[in-house]
Amino acid sequence: MRAKEDHHRFHHKVNMYITKKLFNNPTAYIILLLLSYALGYLSSPKPHTPPPPSRPRAGAGAGAGAATATSNSTIQLPPSLLDNFRVTTRCAADSVPPQLVRQTIIDRIFNGTSPYVNFPPPHISHLLRRRRIKGWGSYGAVFGNLIDKVRPRVIIEVGSFLGASALHMANLTRQLGLDSQILCIDDFRGWPGFRDKFKDIPMVNGNVLLYFQFLQNVIYQNAIDSVLPVPFSSGSALTKLCEWGVVGDLIEIDAGHDFNSAWADINRAWRILRPGGVIFGHDYFTAADNRGVRRAVNLFAKINGLKVQIDGQHWVIHSAVNA
Ligand SMILES: C[S@@+](CC[C@H](N)C(=O)[O-])C[C@H]1O[C@@H](n2cnc3c(N)ncnc32)[C@H](O)[C@@H]1O
């Protein structure tokens, strides 16, 4: 017992001696500080690395963004890259039944009153033409082919301009006796400089009247019961439709044709595609070659293991084929 106490006393004395020496010596003190910092850093828990997002599924409530897929046809990306595709939007768990989609949009966007009521307003009417339509590839065979096949109750068009393709689809669904709603997402601003070629579309205080001419075209073609504008940017509109549970059986992408616009639109639209539905778009073959729409479509398909089909100038992805 006595020997043990002597042993402890001896160790205590040695420790006190070393500590005293160290604190009197600035270099040793700094080395000690650095050593404890390094030891603390190495033993601390590593920063949390979030798991990769889940694979996108068709339909509202679908997981967002791209995934590391397991099939041979898909590419593997490190989680740090996949983080770029993460979105925070929560989509509705249940989708709005097709017969309620029109009223949902009228209630949510137009405060319960159809945009065609009391149209045109007196200060605008003299500026509009009875019909002024112009589109690009708006009457391609792809529209008939897909409508025939999908028989869509809800069509969502991203990029409508003066309504050429939307009104063509309205005609096709009518001919087939389908009760379809066509939602036309467009900010109705065109693009900077577009009036160089469309001088006849008037401007009031710098506000180009595309939206009013679109409504006028729909009225002229007697399609107000099947065509509704959604006059917002594609990003905010697609995000809201997802939150509200508005999904499409057929979705056409034809807004911004640069890579980033097409990429964002395709990813957002995919989340509101009803399972078994079809997403398609124009300008797969353009002067932009593989830098615009085609690059976005191919990258989206590659990451998600989807097959792209071609119909004229259009790209087509059938979710059912890829299910
Ligand atoms: C090529 S036109 C659409 C043509 C139409 N699909 C047709 O064939 O008749 C492109 C349209 O996309 C719209 N647009 C472009 N970028 C947009 C965005 N980020 N949000 C909403 N609309 C956009 C423009 O206002 C323009 O009307």
Structural notes for this entry:
By secondary structure, this protein is of the alpha/beta class. It has two domains: 2-43, no CATH class; 79-318, Vaccinia Virus protein VP39 (Rossmann fold, 3-Layer(aba) Sandwich), CATH 3.40.50. The protein has helices at 2-24, 26-43, 79-82, 98-110, 122-125, 141-150, 164-175, 210-220, 234-244, 259-270, 293-304; strands at residues 154-158, 181-185, 203-204, 207-208, 227-230, 248-253, 273-281, 309-311, 314-318. It has a seven-stranded mixed beta sheet, sandwiched between helices. Strand 3 (203-204) and strand 4 (207-208) form a beta hairpin. The structure holds S-adenosylmethionine. S-adenosylmethionine is lined by residues 135-136, 138, 159-161, 164-165, 186-191, 233-234, 254-256, 261.
In short:
The chain crosses the membrane at residues 21-42. Residues 65-74 have a biased composition (Low complexity). With 323 residues, the protein is of the alpha/beta class.
